[in-house]
Amino acid sequence: MALNTALITAVFIAAAYVSERPPEWLRDLNPGGDWVKPLLWLAAVIVSLPMFIATARKLQAVGLLIAEVKVKPSAAGEHTTAIRNIIAQFIPLAGTAILGLYILILSSTWLPTLRVTLLLLVIAGTISWLLRRSFIKVYAKAQFALEETFAQQPLPNAVHPPPTLPSMLKEAHLEIATIASGSLAEGRFIRELQLRTHTGASIVGIERSTGSIINPGPDEEIQSGDKLLLLGSPTQLQAALQHLAI
């Protein structure tokens, strides 16, 4: 109901703006402009009818719910049904009257004369009665489309494009080096190998029988059978393989 009221407010604010600053083609049709405001007011009412009808239906549901929850047979006794009917009818009538008064106040600065306003209300009421089902269908479709839009998950690539790699990493490659028994690297710490200093390549991962190590520290000991994941350019990787004597 709050969303419907906000939409109705937006429609009347837009209509009020157009009535104060009518486009040139609208002024040319009627230089005096005596019918522009009444026509815009009627158009705003007709556009708002789907939201207005939907709000009235929701008020009916609220009235029935309150009547059912608040009026207990233990307290009302034999008058339970009558009291529930009064509450169920009063709430939608009061809510609709308040919403109608709100619309009149909202459009008070450009509201037509009383006679014209009553005529426009009769026209709007007739249109509402004749096209009530169509307005309900239009509102239901719009509500379903809105709910479906909010329920959709954003596309990762569309909303959050993948980050661009720095130019220095575009030439980087990965290489797996297996440490054989008797290798010069076996039993030594990563910091002792000074692999990055001598070759420019880095050890970014180790896979061994007991598990994998991501981004190992300098004090990680290289063991026989380890598979070292090396990162660097092709030239750096070739130098790293030679340095490890693999």
Write structural notes for this entry:
With about 250 residues, the protein is an alpha+beta fold. It folds into two domains: about 1-150, no CATH class; about 170-245, Alpha-Beta Plaits (2-Layer Sandwich). It has twelve helices and four strands. It has helices at about 1-20, 25-30, 35-70, 75, 80-105, 115-130, 130-150, 155-160, 165-170, 190-195, 195-200, 235-245, and strands at about 175-180, 200-210, 210-215, 225-230. Strands 1-4-2-3 form a four-stranded antiparallel sheet. Strand 2 and strand 3 form a beta hairpin. Helix 3 (about 35-70) crosses helix 6 (about 115-130) and helix 3 crosses helix 7. It is elongated. The mean pLDDT is about 80.
The average pLDDT value, as a whole number, equals 78
Outline the low-pLDDT stretches. Answer: none
**Main β-sheet, spatial strand arrangement:** 1-4-2-3
The biggest beta sheet is recorded as: 4 strands, antiparallel
**Number of beta-strand segments:** 4
Topology:
Blueprint: H1 2-20, H2 24-29, H3 36-70, H4 73-76, H5 80-106, H6 114-130, H7 132-151, H8 156-159, H9 167-170, E1 173-178, H10 190-193, H11 195-199, E2 202-208, E3 211-214, E4 227-232, H12 234-243
Antiparallel strand pairs: 1-4, 2-3, 2-4
Helix pairs in contact: 1-3, 3-5, 3-6, 3-7
